[in-house]
């Protein structure tokens, strides 16, 4: 589906957490280009200001998506600016530690769960009343292929992303009677700065070069390449379009055919 044709997304009111960079920004920009009204949050003001320059008519708030008071403040501002809500994209997430389980501190585990999972709970609980009023409510939760595959040395991250899948499928059943669709996108190895940092960290942990680590990773990908950010954004657009209205409780693996995480 071409995001630049038709009026499928024109006028949609969209909120994207952690929307100042990476996947979140790509999704926000895709919706904005398609005619939606977009409001993003992120943890730092500087990246938000830069991102907002690429979102004509968009809005932004500094907010830690794992902090209840900050999320409450973002929703008050965004819902007032947008006049309602049609699409919530729960994108906030961190990579967490790369280490064996015996070398991970409880505080590190808790932080990953707070940002990757608690944030989705905090945002969704506030979004649902507005989405019920929408008549075409959409929730898109960002999980990961680490939400369906084991991921050695990345247990907090994988556990949080498996939990996002469970949250998604449960909410799909809970909110289906309100005609609110709830789906998860599970990106694979995305071509982004964060992905490159993760590869570098994993290479150090394994005692191999970055090139060797990347070759190992892509050797387990059917298409032998990374996933462009635009492909993840296009999936989000589809799920918020009329063509996506009958999909709910589903996991969309935008992963280039990855079979194993190393």
UniProtKB/TrEMBL annotation:
<dbReference type="InterPro" id="IPR020904">
    <property type="entry name" value="Sc_DH/Rdtase_CS"/>
</dbReference>
<dbReference type="Pfam" id="PF13561">
    <property type="entry name" value="adh_short_C2"/>
</dbReference>
<comment type="similarity">
    <text>Belongs to the short-chain dehydrogenases/reductases (SDR) family.</text>
</comment>
<dbReference type="InterPro" id="IPR036291">
    <property type="entry name" value="NAD(P)-bd_dom_sf"/>
</dbReference>
<dbReference type="GO" id="GO:0016616">
    <property type="term" value="F:oxidoreductase activity, acting on the CH-OH group of donors, NAD or NADP as acceptor"/>
</dbReference>
<protein>
    <submittedName>
        <fullName>3-ketoacyl-ACP reductase</fullName>
    </submittedName>
</protein>
<dbReference type="InterPro" id="IPR002347">
    <property type="entry name" value="SDR_fam"/>
</dbReference>
């Amino acid at each position: 589906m071409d995001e630049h044709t038709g009026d499928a997304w024109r006028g949609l009111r969209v909120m994207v957490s952690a929307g100042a960079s990476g996947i979140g920004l790509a999704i926000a920009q895709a919706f904005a280009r398609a005619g939606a009204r977009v409001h993003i949050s992120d943890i730092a003001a500087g990246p938000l200001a830069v991102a907002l320059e690429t979102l004509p008519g968009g809005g932004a708030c500094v907010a830690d998506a794992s902090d209840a008071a900050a999320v409450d403040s973002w929703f008050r501002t965004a819902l007032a600016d947008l006049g309602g809500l049609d699409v919530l994209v729960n994108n906030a997430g961190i990579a967490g530690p790369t280490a064996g389980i015996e070398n991970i501190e409880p505080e590190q585990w808790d932080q990953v769960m707070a940002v990757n999972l608690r944030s989705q709970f905090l945002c969704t609980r506030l979004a649902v009343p507005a989405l019920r009023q929408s008549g075409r409510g959409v929730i898109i939760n960002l999980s990961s292929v680490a939400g369906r595959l084991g991921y050695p040395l990345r247990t907090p991250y994988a556990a949080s992303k498996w939990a996002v899948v469970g949250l998604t499928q449960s909410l799909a059943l809970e909110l289906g009677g309100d005609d609110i669709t709830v789906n998860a996108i599970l990106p694979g190895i995305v071509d982004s700065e964060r992905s490159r940092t993760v590869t570098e960290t994993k290479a150090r942990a394994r005692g191999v070069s970055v090139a060797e680590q990347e070759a190992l990773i892509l050797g387990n990908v059917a298409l032998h390449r990374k996933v462009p950010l635009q492909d993840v954004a296009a999936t989000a657009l589809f799920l918020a379009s009329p063509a996506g209205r009958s999909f709910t409780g589903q996991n969309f693996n935008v992963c280039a055919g990855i079979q194993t995480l190393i």
